[in-house]
Write a structure and sequence with these properties.
Elements lengths: L2 E6 L3 E7 L4 E11 L11 E11 L2 E14 L2 E9 L3 E10 H5 L3 E13 L9 E13 L2 E12 L2 E12 L3 E10 L1
Antiparallel strand pairs: 1-2, 2-3, 3-4, 4-5, 5-6, 6-7, 7-8, 8-9, 9-10, 10-11, 11-12
Length: 180
């Protein structure tokens, strides 16, 4: 016996197929509001194309492509795949003028990557990133530099270095460890 399922909503369309040997499911998410799950963030929305497949009760592979997580002032765009492990890559693009308002301008941009052996070990996943300040000006001060992220969700090291010029001049360096 085979079975199929089709669901359609304002922000999500889902289709699934099952037969005795295998199953698969796909979903398309369009501007799904995330306010309930991400409080304190202005107008968070999610777009993505999702696919999963397996056999019996086992998940063989899953993917999330064309992921766009956006909120006022910025977005993360990327893809994620789960097969021999979890691999996700994203690009951050944050417009400081939109996020903070005047007198801020410029962007924070750069890659962020997440890798885990499987979903069960997600909290121990490797997290890396390199965020760069591009043409950043805040209250008459020009800021160049960036920050590096390295570690896991349980233990993240963040290192930054910013050269500051204008109404304030100097170098800002910091190192922080965020632990669970």
């Amino acid at each position: 016996t085979d079975a199929t399922l089709q669901l359609s909503g304002e922000a999500v369309d889902v289709s699934a197929r099952w037969d005795p040997q295998a199953w698969s499911a796909t979903a398309e998410v369009r501007s799904l509001p995330l306010d309930r799950w991400v409080p304190g963030v202005d107008a968070p929305r999610l777009d993505a194309r999702l696919h999963a497949s397996g056999h019996g009760t086992s998940l063989d592979a899953a993917s999330a492509h064309e992921i766009v997580l956006r909120a006022r002032g910025g977005q993360l765009v990327g893809n994620a795949d789960l097969d021999e492990g979890l691999r996700a890559t994203f690009e951050l693009d944050a417009d400081l003028a939109d996020a903070l308002g005047p007198p801020a301008s410029g962007r924070l941009v750069g890659p962020i990557a997440i890798e885990a052996d499987d979903l069960a070990s997600l909290r121990a996943a490797s997290v890396t990133g390199a965020i760069t300040a591009e043409h950043v000006h805040i209250a008459g001060t020009h800021i160049d530099g960036g920050l590096a992220i390295d570690g896991s969700f349980r233990h993240i090291d963040v290192r930054s270095q910013f050269d500051v010029s204008g109404s304030v001049t100097g170098v800002i360096q910091s190192t922080a460890t965020i632990e669970d």
